[in-house]
Design brief:
It contains 17 helices and twelve strands. It has 443 residues and is of the alpha/beta class. The strands form three sheets. Strands 1, 2, 3, 4, 9, 10 and 11 form a seven-stranded mixed sheet that branches. The longest helix is centred in the C-terminal third of the chain and has 18 residues. It is globular and about 70 Å long.
């Protein structure tokens, strides 16, 4: 999940009859420790302190203290410091799927399967369980949210310039050229997130590519696969022709360009429309729509990739692992928090019941409101079903992520071809992983 703007917590969302249709686990199976319990929960999601009040009402003997120690890498640095020190860590911690392996190898997170977490498997989108249970035995987290990809586009701009919503990447490129000529270069078709490795990797994921896998005790890293080269070469051509922007993502510069109508579309994860709406302070609200991710060929089986998403893990330092497991399962399967987290904070659920709930669509609230009342959730729910299950992340992903920025700056400055960029990315990350003691080889 990307950084989300906090908004005010809403009230109850459903009637009793609707609640019965929302399939939830039997929480009574999770027998917690005795006595008054206080759980420390690290998460960067705004407003969760309000959400957990529902949990405390259901379980009066358990209090949950929500602590935002920073988003993503900021939190991870603090967590690794606590792991090395042997103290100072939380009971439950939010971790993105791509960074989870780095905490598994440092023995910082608990196998929640020993506390009954495996019983929750059927309540989540299958591929997300593969992210938290890489060997299909141990469970290192409870899926929280996902980021399947779709195309967010400004319908007002598309209508103004007579553009057709593309269903293939070939059509996307043709419409981008058409827009460039019609606007005299003043409006670019989309954004290339040149400083965000998981965005690019999500597009490769959608084309069936993979970056990491294991063979016995050995890792195989393939950052420069044919699929990766195809995706990068495609976007490199659009950037070179100035049909597509390459601004630093999640910055004022980027959002100012979007709000001013200088960028017509963007490949976004499920949390993207909500983040965009909040970042624009509802400028251009109602002008946007979401469409399925363009495909490489007409008639192919529909495929999407994933960008972001996170889980809630229990640390080995927790003195209440059973209560921490119960809380993690409840937070991501109970109707109240699942729907509230999407409507109020943009957290697109990994919960199967959540994705199937009609109440996920609130036309008068963002992101539906931002998208002209469209059922945004339905588009992304279909995308989530088209994400390849067999996709893994390496324990050294933090280096891979940082090195991506270095390599792609060379590409943007014109000092490297797409193939050279990917080969350098592969070689430097491979060398770093080996230096860190991992048994890894290139394909």
């Amino acid at each position: 999940m990307a950084l989300l703007a906090g908004v005010q917590f809403g009230g109850p969302l459903c009637s009793a009859s609707a609640q019965e249709a929302f399939k939830e686990p039997e929480y009574s199976k999770y027998q917690v420790e005795s006595g008054p319990i206080t759980l420390e929960f690290w998460s960067w999601v705004g407003g969760l302190d309000q959400v957990v009040k529902q949990f405390e009402q259901a379980y009066p003997n358990i209090k949950v203290h929500v602590n935002n120690v920073g988003a993503g890498p900021q939190e991870y640095e603090k967590l690794q410091t606590a792991i090395k020190a042997g103290s100072g860590g939380p009971d439950v911690v939010q971790i993105e799927y791509d960074f989870l392996p780095s905490f598994i190898v440092t023995d910082g997170v608990l196998d929640m399967g020993k506390e009954g977490a495996s019983d929750a498997k059927s309540y989540f989108v299958p591929w997300t369980w593969g992210q938290v249970s890489p060997d299909a035995k141990t469970v290192y987290g409870i899926p929280q949210d996902i980021g399947p990809l779709a195309l967010l586009y400004n319908k007002k701009i598309f209508d103004q310039y007579g553009l057709t919503v593309p269903t293939t990447w070939d059509e996307f490129a043709k419409e981008a050229e058409k827009l460039n000529k019609a606007s005299n270069g003043k409006v670019q078709m989309a954004e290339f997130y040149a400083t965000t490795a998981p965005w690019f990797m999500g597009l490769v994921w959608a084309d069936g590519g993979e970056f990491f896998k294991t063979s016995g005790d050995t890792w195989i890293q393939t950052l420069n696969s044919p699929e990766a080269e195809k995706v990068l070469s495609y976007w490199a051509d659009l950037v070179k022709k100035k049909y597509v922007a390459a601004l630093p993502g999640f910055t004022a510069e980027f959002y100012n360009a979007v709000g001013a109508g200088q960028i017509a579309a963007s490949v976004e994860a499920a949390w993207g429309p909500g983040v965009t709406a909040a970042s624009l302070n509802n400028r251009t609200s109602g002008d946007w729509r979401v469409a399925p991710l363009p495909q490489w060929s007409k008639g192919q089986q529909f495929r999407s990739g994933n960008w972001g998403g996170s889980c809630d893990s229990v640390t080995r330092q927790s003195k209440h692992p059973r209560a921490a497991t119960l809380f993690s399962v409840w937070l991501n399967t109970a109707k109240g928090p699942v729907l509230n987290n999407w409507i109020n904070y943009g957290i697109f659920p990994a919960s199967i019941a959540g994705l199937a709930s009609p109440e996920l669509n609130q036309a008068d609230k963002n992101p539906g409101k931002f998208c002209g009342g469209q059922n945004v959730a339905e588009v992304y729910a279909q995308a989530s079903k088209a994400v390849n299950v067999d996709f893994a992340w390496s324990p050294w992903f933090a280096f891979v992520n940082d090195n991506f920025n270095k390599q792609f700056q060379a590409f943007l400055s014109g000092n490297a071809t797409p193939k050279q960029v990917l080969d350098s990315w592969q070689n430097e990350c491979l060398r770093n992983a080996k230096d860190d003691g991992y048994a890894v080889k290139g394909k």
